[in-house]
Specification:
- Helix content is 37%, strand content 12%.
- It is of the alpha/beta class.
- Helix 5 runs parallel beside helix 6 (158-171) and helix 11 (314-340) packs across helix 12 (368-378).
- It is globular, with a radius of gyration of 24 Å.
Amino acid sequence: MSVICKTALRHPPINRIFFPMSKEALLQKISDRKATVGVIGLGYVGLPLVLLFSKRGFSVVGIDVDARKIEQLRLGNSYIEHISPSEITTLNETGNFSAGTNPNLVGDCDAVLLCVPTPLTRNREPDMTYIERTAQAIGPFIRRGQLISLESTTYPGTTAEVLVPILERESGLVANREFFVAYSPEREDPNNQNYTTELIPKVVGADTADALELATELYASVVRRVVPVSSAATAEATKLVENIFRCVNIAMVNELKMVFQRMGIDIWEVIEAAKTKPFGFMPFYPGPGLGGHCIPIDPFYLTWKAREFDMPTKFIELAGEINSAMPYYVVNRTMEALNDQGKALKGSRLLLVGLAYKKDVDDLRESPTLKLIELFESRGAVADYHDSHIAEMKETREHPNLLGRKSVPIEKAGEYDAVIISTNHSDIDYAALGNRARLIVDTRNAMSGVQDITSFLCKA
């Protein structure tokens, strides 16, 4: 047994043959805050859930294959910037939290939430590896009366077609008769102080009334509002629609940015003027590409699944193509700006400001800056980065060669041939940067409103 955190299992997994639990018994345990909630995957989605369920009085078991995370939690440290060490200390002091790496820990839980990654393969097809391996690992320890809820963003049908068959095979039990299965998509927005996990409405779907009732009651005990829907597939589709909506609209303004740049029109000024219309318009903003754990990935999950039904998704795929092309556009604009100064991209030294995928977080999942570094270096440039939120490059699935690179102090910006603002963190003194750098390629409109700069400025 690999149990590394503060407390070990209180007892061996409950015998699922001789001590079955009814739906009514689990509902009562949830109502009385006596249910034990397991969370598998202690990252940007799972750890906030651990904190929330613990705060509401539930016993919580955290499970992650990364023993380093377990050790950091045991020591009272946080490995996610917007979650403070004091929150981890409070979690440990409650006495209702335990964690480890062994999947048999699920046997001690009444409800288990799966918060594992769902990336794309190199061919931009859904990668179900994490869901499949997790189901295989925990299946032998599933017991009667448990609730299993998948939170990973995925295509409609994953819960019924991928998760359930593996759990049934490994456990020898029948889903939604002997244990219950639901789907509730995560809606985390890291470091959004206005919408924390507790305040974001929770969509819940299941394929039986009993499973839906259990999942609804569980989540309703910790979040302000639960939105039940008719099936797991409906809940899966809901999350995709949310992110495809953003993907398509961002693609539109990214394309408009390139069109208006040719016309000598500032897209940012256009958007500011357009959003004064009090109806029928919602502002979206261009950038160097899409980042984060959802928007760059989710549309391809639906396009892949739609092919099974002989349905082309041209509109969605076009949006994905436009957004995927934006890093190349930034590289070309940088080449043009350097050329205007009599320099070639090859041999130039570049500083990319902002490694995280969005401002004021330490999350670099799918960050377009990673792609930019790769593209610049493949063309013979030297590409460093500055990010006060990420002192050293973390491990990434698609860019393992960047592991260990360290952030360069922003004060050294003047030593580079060009500075590319790829993430507009709030802690950057953009006026000082404008008077320090030789050339600035601004992909985020961060220099807007900064007066009297000496840098050559190029918007990209």
